[in-house]
Amino acid sequence: MSAESSNLSNIEHRAVIKYFIQKGNTLKEIFEDMVSVLQESAPSYTMVKKWARLFQQGRESCEDDPRPGRPVTVVTEENVRKIEKLVLADRRIKL
After folding, report:
1. By three-state DSSP, how is residue 56 classified?
2. Half-sphere exposure of 30 (CA within 13 A, CB side)
3. What is the largest CA-CA distance in the chain?
4. Model-wide pTM > 0.85
């Protein structure tokens, strides 16, 4: 397998771990299989251990859980026009 084709995303790594857990492989077997195939792009033993535990506890999703924090801001034409209108109306406006 070439180095380019062995670069998997985190979600793909988790799906592989989930498959091996459902197959009944041990944590050591999972990690060794992933390292033998993915080499340097394999997840760390700690990450394999974490996700294996989560899947053994019944987790189904391979996606990250949503995290609290600052919401994603979006730049849209409508927002740009509104801000431009505010600035043109009062050049001394401060946020």
Report:
1. helix
2. 26
3. 67
4. no
Q: Of 20, 10, 23, whose CA–CA distance to 63 is shortest?
A: 10
Two structure tokens written together for 44? 């760390």
Who's near 63: CB < 8 A, 6+ residues apart? 11
Helices (H), the chain: 10-23, 27-38, 45-56, 77-89
- Give per-residue pLDDT as tens, 5-36: 557 889 999 999 999 999 999 999 999 999 99
Q: Where are the domains of the chain?
A: 10-57
The closest alpha carbon to 19, from 48, 42, 46, belongs to 48
